[in-house]
Amino acid sequence: MSEHYMAPLDDLNFVLNEVLDYQRLFSLPAYEHADVKLAGAVLNESARFNEEVLGPLNSIGDEIGSRLENGRVKTPPGFRDAYWKYVEGGWPALDLPLEFGGQALPLTLQAACAEMVNGACVSFGMLPLMERAATRLLLAHAPRDIVAAYAPDLVAGKWGATICISEAQAGSDVGRISTRAQPRGDGRYTLSGSKIFITYGDQDYTEQIVHMVLARLPDAPAGTRGLSLFLVPSRLLGADGRPGAANAVNVSRVEHKMGLKASPTCVLNLEGAEGVLIGRENAGLKAMFTMVNTMRLEVAVQGVAVAGAASVKALRYAAERPQGGPPTARPTLIVEHADVRRMLYIMRARTEAMRALVLETAYQLDIAQAGAVDDRAGALALAEWLLPVCKACGSEAGFEVANLAVQVLGGHGYVADAGVEQYVRDSRVMSIYEGANGIQALDLVTRKLGEGGRYELFTARIRADLTRCRGQAPLAALGRALEDALNRLDACTRAVVAGLSKAPRDVEAGAAAYLALVGVVAGGWMWLRMAAAANGGSAQHRAKRAVAKFYIDYLLPEVRTLECRVMVGAACLDSLDAETLTG
Amino acid sequence: MSEHYMAPLDDLNFVLNEVLDYQRLFSLPAYEHADVKLAGAVLNESARFNEEVLGPLNSIGDEIGSRLENGRVKTPPGFRDAYWKYVEGGWPALDLPLEFGGQALPLTLQAACAEMVNGACVSFGMLPLMERAATRLLLAHAPRDIVAAYAPDLVAGKWGATICISEAQAGSDVGRISTRAQPRGDGRYTLSGSKIFITYGDQDYTEQIVHMVLARLPDAPAGTRGLSLFLVPSRLLGADGRPGAANAVNVSRVEHKMGLKASPTCVLNLEGAEGVLIGRENAGLKAMFTMVNTMRLEVAVQGVAVAGAASVKALRYAAERPQGGPPTARPTLIVEHADVRRMLYIMRARTEAMRALVLETAYQLDIAQAGAVDDRAGALALAEWLLPVCKACGSEAGFEVANLAVQVLGGHGYVADAGVEQYVRDSRVMSIYEGANGIQALDLVTRKLGEGGRYELFTARIRADLTRCRGQAPLAALGRALEDALNRLDACTRAVVAGLSKAPRDVEAGAAAYLALVGVVAGGWMWLRMAAAANGGSAQHRAKRAVAKFYIDYLLPEVRTLECRVMVGAACLDSLDAETLTG
């Protein structure tokens, strides 16, 4: 069994080139400097880089972890070197604008490459993610001089970045952030407060770390409408524009976590640190939301990445591990046992559905950004609908598939050497950070449903694909099951929409199940499209058709439980007071 | 939030005294030396011991772990002392016979106490479990002189024990065990081979470790019919009956595992070690099976224990953690959020159903052992039916509930300090060891269904309880839902039984779902009984009725997905050859 990462190039290429309308992107003005051939070369090179450079770091990072030494974070051996190779390769800037040194390639391609980064080493991938997110924040909201001072080095990956939101008393409830920003009168601000769970809050890769901080100005309104966004560098820029004196930002703690051990999760103390305002006063949260799409999609990518990496290891193990069968004969390979096959099929079905859904969402974001003007609103609406589903279902698929991989390997999966149990630990946080999955579900039902026609657009796309498949016998059978599921989803949606005004607590009670239901149906949609695309005789195409059928037969029936849960209402949750429930 | 374990005494007492026919046990001759009052005192004392002595060790054990030093295992600080306190308290011998120094109390009580041991520290609980299992093996199969030489010190906990089954090429497939036993001509045997995954294969608590080893005699038949059972002490007994010279049993490795880090999982090399035969030649596996009930029930107990401990921490956190609500008001406690409640209710519903089911199964094993002669066969049949369900669903409940606890705590749950993520890691192996859950499912459909009338007995009990509840309005509503689920299970069972001869591969494909379906229905049965028992106005009784309703409304609908999966057949798993599936 290979210890290191093997990139799923064939599967990525299948989705990009055979399922999505990928070529169309390169006819758009924004991407006409590139073409499918170049994009293919980038993908191949990404696979090579991540297999060779990052893959071997994953278990070292887990074993040693990042830790605090004399007030600074020390990352595990090899990470710093790998980071600079990543920078030299131009990987931080794939989808960032040309004018700041980026490559302005589609987000779709970036997401495919990010799957490989995160499949090789999620702990590593966290820093480039923060850099891209911070860059997008600056480009969207910062004044020109700030962009000029910070964007080029961020885009190049020469400087690190963090996003500082959470505080001890303010996790999901960002409105209670209490970090203070005091105007100094010279256009700058003095920030004081303590931020927790800051990913790569410190590191030893880059000379500068650009902290994007939500804080509260004096007399700011309570709640989220009183939050402003500040850029707080770890070192103040000198007159020459280079990082100079240290700013008053100190790391007091690196968390001891279940996983992602190489990615330092810091408590960051702002002790009168100097910062500049980004965007308007009290509009910080709204500004932060411009990077939410970037971040949530990337967490979905992380989930797919772990699911993909875990699948590859389990599939290879099952294909090589002899166990069982008549005692006088050579043992059977475990891939032949029905229950092992069941797990392997679930792994493939879940992973590949989510991979396709994530890339479809990235594709819609590309069209929303750079497509023909008439296409943009619809693409954005569809992407906005799919994003919370991708984030929640992607993160859960990562964890579920990693766990199935452990089960396929049995006792060997539970020991560290196989490199599989790490996937379970690393992926566990994905359901929590960047908006816990319960928050994603509320976002879906309260913000994405109703106005905007997003749901209608989503289901219209599915029905169009169903119509297209109706004439082809095997696809028609898949389609009938999907159509039944879609009808059940329609019924649930009508109930949820009706409940939004009349019985919001009932909607909240069913929100998690509703999101899961949308995810299962969206997965079925992806498999219908993949099965339709896989119309040849190659092993890959035969496998896609078989896994599509498995998804429809075995996973799609989850709708039957989920529809009950969507409809269950809050009465069964609210019959006990808090003390009786928890006492 | 309390860092340490809080024993669920009230919940245990509720099941024992209000749901089960517990008092009846103490009217049986085997237990008439005890009574409910004594049993209650034992339970209270167990709670105190496990909260005070074992609870504080759990995180230390995780952090430091057991490791190999100069060829011997060194356990974490405090474990050895705690072990001897456990021995002094008489805890190893609760349900072992009086004549060897045990207390001959019901297994039902032992299981309740074992929940508290494992809730406080699963890693600790592994050794007493091995000792009880080894003792039962000896009592059932060893010649008198061996029993006399080994049983008293094992029962007293003065000597440790292991069960040595797995080898590198023989995990679930025990028929391929290749460890050799050569007769020496003096009634003793020389054993050579290497065993893996040996729990407490070495430790620094006891001077003697009694290894129970499956090995193969010369010219033994291939497969499981050629396995014999041997007792191999770590130190050979001298003429005085005390441990003397070291036997040739060596630890070459302690695994680096995902969890259970204080419990040393060893590679054990038998290098011409001396052993004695236990039971008949080539009947070793059958002998081992006399302890399977003990072991599988205990794994289910472990799952319930972790679920219970994780639940308590999450419930307390939710009751104390402010987060959300209008920004100008004091923050809401998270227990008031619908989605947090949903998770807390799932945790309670799953944990308490499994706790009741496990204690019910222990109770049936007590009746099977010590009940009126006419009751024994039925009780054994019911217990045999429930055991694989307890093992698989109990282990999965432990992991599911631990994960929900992490989710309730959010980012705080992902860091080690909260002591919750450890539950996820510790419980992950429970679905694997002592017969992976896929093996439990095969056991249920191929051995427990069909002949023996076990299924019929199980469903007859449920229907009797349904009849009893029909007249009481709230129970009748729960009952109708349960009856619907039971009817669906009946239909699935008919299909599975028919498939056993005609289409065994289809049965295997649906086996995991079938076991899960039985588990969900059995949980509903437990909740019906608990709701019926909780007919008073106390907070505890009100909570039980509310959680019962939640189980029926929210969890029982899982049958609708599971029934599809039971029926799905093997075609969707077998359409690809191994290479195409895994390539």
Automatic annotation (TrEMBL), chains A, B:
Enzyme Commission code(s) on record: 1.3.8.-
Signal peptide: none
Cofactor: FAD
Organism (species): Georgfuchsia toluolica
Source species, domain of life: Bacteria
This protein's UniProt keywords: FAD, Flavoprotein, Oxidoreductase
Domain Acetyl-CoA dehydrogenase-like C-terminal: 458-573
Coiled-coil parts of chain: none
GO MF annotations, alphabetized: flavin adenine dinucleotide binding; oxidoreductase activity, acting on the CH-CH group of donors
Similarity remark: Belongs to the acyl-CoA dehydrogenase family.
Gene: dmdC
InterPro entries named in the record: Acyl-CoA_dh-like_C_dom (IPR025878), Acyl-CoA_Oxase/DH_mid-dom (IPR006091), Acyl-CoA_Oxase/DH_mid-dom_sf (IPR046373), AcylCo_DH-like_C (IPR036250), AcylCo_DH/oxidase_C (IPR009075), AcylCoA_DH/ox_N_sf (IPR037069), AcylCoA_DH/oxidase_NM_dom_sf (IPR009100), Diverse_Acyl-CoA_DH (IPR052166)
Enzyme class: oxidoreductase
Chain ranges of the Acyl-CoA dehydrogenase/oxidase C-terminal domain: 282-445
Listed name of the protein: 3-methylmercaptopropionyl-CoA dehydrogenase
Domain Acyl-CoA oxidase/dehydrogenase middle: start-end pairs: 163-271
Alphabetized Gene3D superfamilies for the sequence: Acyl-CoA dehydrogenase/oxidase, N-terminal domain, Butyryl-CoA Dehydrogenase, subunit A, domain 2, Butyryl-CoA Dehydrogenase, subunit A, domain 3
